[in-house]
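Quick one, probably user error.
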């Protein structure tokens, strides 16, 4: 599933989460930290992945989730979430617009009771 991560979405997430770290919101701060532009919050990526999975599989719930970040995802870029499996252990990969692996891991999905 492909999604565009906009600066506005990240601003809203920063406001709600109270995580207003400058590397997520300010190009100069991101550059000072070694990034080419602001980066997306890791928890935003994790939450979006869970939301997308549940939207596609509403009969399930997620009992565990483990995602490891490999590369930053930049604000105002496209991202692809891929899920392999529909119940039990589901492999999750998050890929950036240039095909670079952003994160990978596993979630455990179970049928709702």
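Nope, works fine. Designed sequence:
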């Amino acid at each position: 599933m492909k999604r565009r991560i906009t600066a506005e979405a990240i601003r809203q997430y920063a406001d709600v989460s109270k995580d207003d770290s400058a590397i997520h919101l300010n190009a100069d701060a991101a550059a000072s930290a070694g990034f080419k532009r602001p980066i997306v919050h890791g928890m935003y990526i994790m939450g979006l992945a869970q939301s997308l999975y549940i939207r596609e599989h509403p009969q399930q719930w997620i009992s565990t989730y483990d995602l490891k970040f490999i590369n930053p995802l930049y604000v105002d870029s496209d991202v692809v979430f891929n899920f392999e499996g529909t119940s039990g252990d589901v492999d999750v990969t998050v890929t950036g617009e240039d095909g670079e692996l952003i994160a990978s891991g596993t979630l455990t999905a179970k049928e709702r009771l």
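DSSP finds four helices and five strands in the chain.
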